Amino acid sequence: MQDLPHGTIDVDHQAPAFVADRHNRYAALREQCPVVFNQHYGGFWMVTDYESVAAVARDNETFAHKYEPDAGDGISYHGICGIPRPPYVPRMGVSEIDGPEHADLRRVLNPLMTPRVIERQRPRMEAVSSWFIDQFVEAGAADLVLDYATPVPAVLTLEMMGMDAANWRHYADFFHATSSYEATDARFRSAVARRDDMWAELAGFAAYRRDNPADDVTTALVNATIDGRLLSDDEITGIMWNLVAGGLDTTTSLVSWGLHHLGTHPGDRARLIEDPDLIGPAVEEFLRFYSPSETLTRTATRDVELGGRRIRRGDVVFISWVAANHDPSVFDGADEMRIDRAVNKHLAFGLGGHRCIGSSIARIESQLMLGDVLARLGDYEVDADAFTPYPGNLLMTGVVSMPVTFTPSAPTGTDDPFGR
Question: CA-CA distance, 290 to 250, in Å (whole number)?
């Protein structure tokens, strides 16, 4: 990392060498210069300490989420999806709007995703989880990412949207591929080539729900009044894209890393098997330690001071959740995994008005899924040579593949969740 005048660096944070060593790089920045201007990609601020990241996250008026490159106020709003922005990522319909529109949209969606509402869906979650484990439990071997951590959240997310959950693989493969493979990988290129088709499919389902309403999130969207008007087709599709992508890949990443940790730390696994009440705190620690959504980008709407630096109107601000969640000034033993951490004010779900709308879903699903694996596959062993984490994605951290072996057992006989 080349040193330039005080408070300035010139480093390609997208370069493979940086990505591979990003936790150490973030730690060095957090210690030496937690708010620093990076001259790469046209110039942007990198923010790595807890206090400054939290300040940015709380202040949606000063640090805008929205994606609007040609805004009427003269600012080019970069949205949240990174510097540079991946060209295949559409405007994220919940995450990349601000102001009254965002507030109205949250008022529509929040009641559908409260802990009480999600808890009512627990029997369905249990049935889906149990059925997918049944598909491999007799074999004594599985890929816990591809065979379990991916399909369960995918099915539950599509059902929440009102879509055909039996088609889960179609959507899961797309969002998994765009997050987990290098841009040069044929699987990545194949997924990106389907981007417009995927958009059209979501738009088509929204049109169907206008004429065939049901009790689901898509129906709520097509009927919602936002800032005094109905949403456009593109707005609805962008929101659906955001919710489906978030529901599929983030929970999958969290569960995958949690299962990897427990599969490689037998003492922690034994504690959770003996005391399932610790699964809740363990999920919070997995959120803090791994921070599946690692970073986001915001745009300054006015001049402001942050961490002793002067941020100018229109400047791009890149914040690292994972760096903030490893700040030793906030977390004792910040680089240690403590599944019983008593106080855990992590920022994995963000803060303020843009705090993750699906946080209750992610928590409840993750706790249930980890508990089911420990109860039914409690002696699973991870194939360390075949374990494959995401190779280089600063937006998301996850696992591509995690083959395991375990003592076979009998299936429960849970009914096929798709009624086949």
Answer: 11
